[in-house]
Specification:
- This protein is of the alpha+beta class.
- The chain has a single domain, classed as 4-Layer Sandwich (Metallo-beta-lactamase, Chain A), CATH 3.60.15.
- Strands 1-14-13-12-11-10-9 form a seven-stranded mixed β-sheet. A seven-stranded mixed β-sheet has the order 2-3-4-5-6-7-8. Strands 15-16 form a two-stranded antiparallel sheet.
- The relative contact order is 0.15.
Length: 367
């Protein structure tokens, strides 16, 4: 009998265990509110907590912002019946039957975009996203139900997957669109540094990258509040992976650069509204910890590659949990992200072995 697959939440990195940040951060409450709740964390800004049907990362934080006679929704939850029922309750009990004027999605992942199309159609509201997130979301949704492409199969073979693991990838391919309602056919583009008004206050878009291509954070100086989606989380490090769609990408360098950018653009005492976990103070300390975490992982990996390694042979120095059928795709994606970062820095070389698999070796200082 085939064992059931335990899927790992796509927002969460495998490179470290959940860390206890209480000693570094100040959380606004000790315990998270129940699913379906609405908590006002700043004037006109409500924290909505929804369950997620995934092991490990079992919730998401969404946001409802008062906006004149209506509301702005930031992120929408996964596209299932349970989430729709919670939204229907909020539309009546929290929003008092007033319309949603705009729907903003920080990035493309289904727990953030899953009900965007449904809410937009329900209220005739526009969808606001960055260009990279909107079009990649549409592209991935269009793959739903299709067979795995040759480029994807070739990517994982070069990574070192066995034929059995390739078959599992082929079986699981094309499921993205099953977790989202159909996206609107058009959108309003968010750009880095763009200013907009919500509820009579100015909000600024700060774009980061690494976890996704053009992740939008929303910062309100008047409230000293930033809604950071998955770009900054309190207790876990966000997943940063290379995927078959961009095999030579360097998302980890993008991620590290984005952490430095947020340190430069946000005040130290800003209140962070993350997509997972409890809102907190201490953004600079958390960002510095994330940078340090990945730089140390790169150091371990560089030493490990003194002997040539495939991306499937470096799990032991990057991850502190077992790699199995449920998280192997994400594990190899994070491994390649770290290897591509070292390659981009000129610290390792890559070659194809006789089996057509990539191996990585630390460059000698002389070379």
């Amino acid at each position: 009998m085939t064992k059931p697959i335990t899927k790992t939440a796509p927002d969460e990195s495998l490179t470290a265990p959940r860390d206890n940040s209480s000693r570094l951060l100040k959380f606004i409450v000790d315990d998270a509110p129940a699913s379906g709740s609405a908590t006002e964390i700043a004037d006109g800004v409500f924290w909505l907590r929804f369950d997620l049907p995934m092991k490990g990362l079992d919730h998401i934080n969404l946001w409802a912002l008062k906006d004149g006679d209506g509301w702005v929704v930031v992120d929408t939850g996964i596209g299932n019946r349970a989430s729709r029922e919670i939204w229907e309750k909020h539309f009546v009990e929290l929003m008092g039957g007033r319309p949603v004027n705009r729907v903003i999605c920080t990035h493309l992942h289904p727990d953030h975009t899953g009900l965007a199309g449904w809410i937009c159609r329900k209220f005739g509201a526009p969808l606001l996203m960055t260009r990279g997130e909107y079009f990649l979301c549409r592209l991935m949704a269009a793959d739903t139900g299709k067979e795995a492409p040759a480029a994807g199969i070739n990517f994982y073979r070069k990574c070192g997957f066995t034929e059995e693991q390739i078959e599992l990838y082929k079986m699981r391919f094309g499921g993205f669109g099953k977790a989202i309602s159909p996206m609107p056919q058009g959108y309003d583009r968010l750009t880095d540094g763009e200013l907009g008004m919500i509820g009579g206050r100015e909000w600024r878009v700060i774009i980061g990258s690494g976890h996704s291509p053009e992740h939008a954070c929303l910062y309100c100086p008047e409230l000293n509040l930033c809604l950071t989606g998955d770009q900054l989380l309190p207790n876990i490090s966000s997943n940063v992976s290379v995927w078959p769609t961009e095999p030579e990408g360097n998302p980890l360098e993008d991620w590290i650069r984005s952490c430095h950018k947020l340190i430069a653009e946000l005040p130290e005492d800003v209140l962070i509204g993350p997509a997972h976990g409890i809102p907190f103070y201490g953004a600079h300390r958390r960002l510095e910890k994330l940078i340090e975490h990945h730089e140390k992982a790169l150091e371990r990996l560089l030493a490990h590659c003194e002997t040539p390694r495939m991306s499937t042979e470096v799990y032991s120095v990057l991850f502190r949990r077992a790699i199995n059928d449920g998280n192997r795709i994400m594990a190899v994606g994070e491994s390649v992200a770290h290897l591509n970062c070292l390659k981009g820095r000129g610290l390792i070389s890559r070659r194809l072995n006789d089996a057509g698999q990539f191996t990585y070796k630390t460059r000698s200082k002389a070379s």
